[in-house]
Amino acid sequence: MTGPPAPSRATAAAHTDPASRATRAPHAPLAPRAWLVWSLAAVTVALVTDNPVYRGLVALVALNVLLTWLPPGRRVRPLAVAVLVAATLAALINLLAGHTGADVIARLPEWLPLVGGPLTLESLAFGGAIGLGLVAALFSVAPLSLVLEPHDVVDAMPASLERTGIAVATSLNLVSGFGRTFTEVRDAQRMRGWKPAGLRSWNEVLVPVILTAIEDSVRLAEAMEARAFGAGRRTSYAASSFGAREAVVVAAALAAATLFVGLRIAGVAMDWYPYPTISLPPIHPLLVLACLGLALPAFPLPTHRSAAPPGRSA
Amino acid sequence: MSASTGTRLARLEHVSYWYPNQDEPSLREVDLEIEPGLTLIAGDSGGGKSTLLRLFDGLVPQFHGGRVSGRAEVAGLDPFRTPIPQLAQRAGLVFQDVETQSVYGTVEREVAFGLENLGLPRAEMHDRVDEAMAALGIESLVGRRLETLSGGERQRVQLAAVLVLRPQLVALDEPTSQLDPEGAAALLAACLGLAAGGRAVVVAEHRLETLSPAADRRLTVEGGRVTLGAAELPGLSGVAPARPPAGDPVPAGEPAWELRDVVAGPAGRSREPVLHDLSLAGGRGEVVALLGPNGSGKTTLLRTLAGLLPPLAGTVRRPAGRTAYLPQNPGALLHLPTVRAEVALTLRRTGSGESPEPILAAFGLDLLADRYPRDLSSGERQRAALAATVAGSPTLVLLDEPTRGMDRAARRSLAAAVETLTAGGSAVVLATHDTELAAELADRTIELRGGLAVERARGAVADETPLSGGSR
Question: Could you tell me which of A163, A168, A169, A164 has the C-alpha nearest to residue A233?
Answer without folding.
Answer: A163
